[in-house]
From TrEMBL:
The keyword Zinc-finger does not apply. Its EC number is 1.1.1.169. SUPFAM superfamilies: 6-phosphogluconate dehydrogenase C-terminal domain-like, NAD(P)-binding Rossmann-fold domains. It comes from Novosphingobium capsulatum. Residues 1-133 form the Ketopantoate reductase N-terminal domain. This is 2-dehydropantoate 2-reductase. It catalyses: (R)-pantoate + NADP(+) = 2-dehydropantoate + NADPH + H(+). Belongs to the ketopantoate reductase family.
């Protein structure tokens, strides 16, 4: 996702620095730029902590389990009035970032652009997407509109959305269902849509997620979530959700922030779930094997 957003912002004329913990990846991006499908963009690249005090927007696209560490390592890159934007999946990323830079410098949101990593700085984008975001505090600030304009110019389909909390919960329900079932079955989004038992399980997780959100006073629109799932099954058919890409690469997944975040919200209200609880247990078992090997 960093490759997609950074590459497009660079092509739109912004000065972009890619920051990553892997020295080989940093060297490859510095030498070859980044590639979205077969479109290149030239950019700088650095290890965490190298860029100092010049950045007016830091877009954080690590996995959720790395959010706090990445923020601590990279906060020094920000100008005193610099902002941080998270479009990561899962619950809790904005609050983790606020713990480092303060809530009034955090923009939170979602994106459904489907990006599949092919190699260092090289992605395949399997369809069109959008971005919705707003400030973590709920305040309307000039920074929101500056960032929305920059993302729109970079053809990332961005809109400033005051009710972003609802969008974040709708997205986490979508991801709990689709990313989880794809990661467990190793099917693409289209394959899950085509196979009734997998599709039905995804829709059960969606139904449970909607009940959990409503119990937590988040007014999600169940029909909109089901439509988003149907849209992805039709238009993002070849995409391997980020959680499946993690399983295939033998990396830990975002189960704790996505399925685990929803499950914790269910437990806060004494609710029992079935499909979500079983998927979470299976995904945590895969994570356990990865972490202990
Ligand atoms: N891929 C997709 O289509 C979509 C993904 N998302 C969400 O966006 C977020 C990013 O996903 P995605 O791009 O797929 O993830 P990737 O795992 O491909 O990219 C995350 C990158 O962050 C690097 N990283 C880890 N720790 C740090 C650190 N401390 N400082 C700097 N870089 C670090 C990782 O390095 P290393 O690999 O060495 O750990 C990796 O290169 C996730 O929350 C995901 O759920 C949302 C919508 C769509
Ligand atoms: C692109 C999308 C929406 C597909 O599940 C996603 O969020 C992901 O891959 O993590």
């Amino acid at each position: 996702m960093g490759t997609l957003f950074g590459g497009r912002l660079a092509r739109a004329g912004h000065q972009v620095v890619f920051v990553d913990t892997d020295p080989a990846r940093v060297a490859a991006i510095a030498a070859n730029g980044v590639w979205e499908n077969d479109i290149p963009a030239r950019c700088a690249a650095a290890l965490p902590g190298v860029a100092q005090g010049e950045t007016d927007l830091l877009i954080l696209f690590t996995k959720a389990q790395h959010t706090a560490a990445a923020m601590v390592q990279n906060a020094g890159a920000l100008r005193p009035d610099g902002m941080v934007l998270t479009l990561q999946n899962g619950l809790g990323n904005g609050v983790a970032i606020a713990g480092v830079v303060g809530a009034d410098r955090v923009l939170v949101g979602i994106t459904n652009w489907p990006a599949d990593l092919l190699g260092h700085g090289r992605i395949h984008v399997a369809g069109h997407g959008m971005v919705k975001f707003w400030s973590l505090t709920g305040a309307d600030t000039p920074a929101i509109h500056r960032v929305a304009a920059a993302l729109a110019e970079a053809d990332l389909g961005a809109s400033a959305e005051p009710s972003v909390k609802v969008a974040i919960w709708e997205k986490v329900i979508f991801n709990a269902a689709l990313n989880g079932i794809c990661a467990l079955t190793r099917m693409t989004v289209g394959e899950v849509g085509d196979f009734a038992p997998a599709r039905d399980l995804a829709l059960q997780v969606v139904a449970e997620g909607i009940t959990i959100a409503l119990a937590n006073d988040v007014a999600v629109d169940g029909e909109r979530v089901r439509q988003a799932v149907a849209f992805a099954m039709t238009h993002h058919r070849a995409h391997k959700p980020s959680m499946l890409q993690d399983v295939e690469a033998g990396r830990p997944t975002e189960v704790d922030a996505i399925q685990g975040g929803l499950l914790a919200a269910a437990h806060r209200h004494g609710m029992t779930t079935h499909a979500l609880a079983h998927c979470t247990a299976l995904l945590r078992s895969i994570d356990h094997i990865v972490r202990s090997s």
